[in-house]
Amino acid sequence: MLGSLIKIFLRSYATKLNQHQQLLMARNLPKKEMIFGVKDIIVVASGKGGVGKSTIAANLACTLAKLGKRVGLLDGDIFGPSIPLLMNVQSEPLLNDKDRMIPPENYNVKCLSMGMLTPLDGSIIWRGPLVMSAIQRLLKGAEWGPLDILVVDTPPGTGDVHLSLNQHVPVTGVILVSTPHTASIQVTIRGAKMYEKMNVPILGVVENMRYSICENCKNRMEFFKKEISIKSLPSKLISIPLDAHIADCSEAGVPVVVKYPNSEYANLFTRLAKEICSLIEKKNDSKGDKSDASLN
Ligand SMILES: Nc1ncnc2c1ncn2[C@@H]1O[C@H](COP(=O)(O)OP(=O)(O)OP(=O)(O)O)[C@@H](O)[C@H]1O
Ligand SMILES: [Mg+2]
């Protein structure tokens, strides 16, 4: 009896879906739509934790704003939000007359995070579907526009948040952050494969903490002497040094590019931001004009 039940179960799951069944299943998937007034969405991701995703996302957002872009920064890390601390925006968002959250702004960047909506000592025990609905609320339940670029910081890995983001909104491209060690690079490649499968363009890799610059002699000190060359690794956008100023500024809630606008770090982030803008432009040129989606 049990054997035949297992056989029926296996057979039903092994069967390829016909077109009608595929259509029925697609009915329950959320519809992918632009966020009103937002032109482009850039996701910052990495399979590994602690490699600098949030630091890169915050500094990139501030740099894009300095370049004259209208920028938002969404903290997609539901369980471990860090944007409120990095950007020094702790206040609860106000609601407008349509009951939509107004993202608080600092350094000319509109920010929104679960950390603004939950008490610091409150534990979050949400599972998959709730995480997905939280992301949807942060994306669509807020008055983001008009924005040129919404930067989304994500938690480590390739889980519910990443899938949910890609199901709800058209992501212009993803920036992968990695340190130069093998374990991080391997997981970066795995992440890149997932984005490829979801048809999300990969803009490139930001390498973090390969080297440091000596404060006295200004020489570069390498922590990883060998460059790991792997064909399937997406191209490198920039390499950001390990530096106490970067860490200190993050702790103080003033991104290093804001605190030291004429520093080498600021130059590196400006190069990164300009490269991202030009990649976005190229993608949009090849897709046709997206200006309909913007409020301008
Ligand atoms: N280039 C850097 N130089 C010095 N410190 C850095 C640098 N990049 C990141 N850090 C520090 O490393 C720690 C982790 O950085 P961050 O929170 O940005 O990583 P993350 O990848 O977002 O982590 P998580 O996976 O937990 O979200 C922070 O204390 C940050 O200040
Ligand atoms: Mg983070």
Question: Would you mind describing this structure in some detail?
Answer:
- Helix content is 39%, strand content 19%.
- Mean pLDDT is 86; it is low at 291-296.
- By secondary structure, it is of the alpha/beta class.
- It starts with a helix and ends in a 9-residue tail after the last helix.
- Bound molecules: adenosine-5'-triphosphate and magnesium ion.
- Residues 46, 49-55, 77, 80, 82, 155-156, 208-209, 240, 242-243, 246-247, 250 line the site of adenosine-5'-triphosphate.
Short structural description:
With 296 residues, the chain is α/β, with parallel strands linked by helices. The protein is 39% helix and 19% strand. Strands 5-6-2-7-1-8-9-12 form an eight-stranded mixed beta sheet, sandwiched between helices. Strands 3-4 form a two-stranded antiparallel ribbon.
Radius of gyration: 21 Å
How many strands appear in the DSSP assignment? 12
Strand order of the largest sheet: 5-6-2-7-1-8-9-12
Q: Structural class of the helices, strands and pairings?
A: alpha/beta
Strand content: 15-25%
Binned, the helix content reads 25-40%
CATH topology of the domain at 31-175 and 250-286: Rossmann fold
- Distance from first to last alpha carbon: 66 Å
What general outline do the C-alpha atoms trace?
globular
User: What is the CATH C-level name of the domain at 31-175 and 250-286?
Assistant: Alpha Beta
The major pleated sheet works out as: 8 strands, mixed
Described by its quaternary structure, the protein is: single chain
CATH architecture classification of the domain at 31-175 and 250-286: 3-Layer(aba) Sandwich
| Element-level helix/strand string | HHEHEHEEEEHEHEHEEEEHHH
CATH superfamily of the domain at 31-175 and 250-286: P-loop containing nucleotide triphosphate hydrolases
- Indicate the mean pLDDT: 86
The total of helices stands at 10
Cofactors and ligands: adenosine-5'-triphosphate, magnesium ion
Low-confidence stretches: 291-296
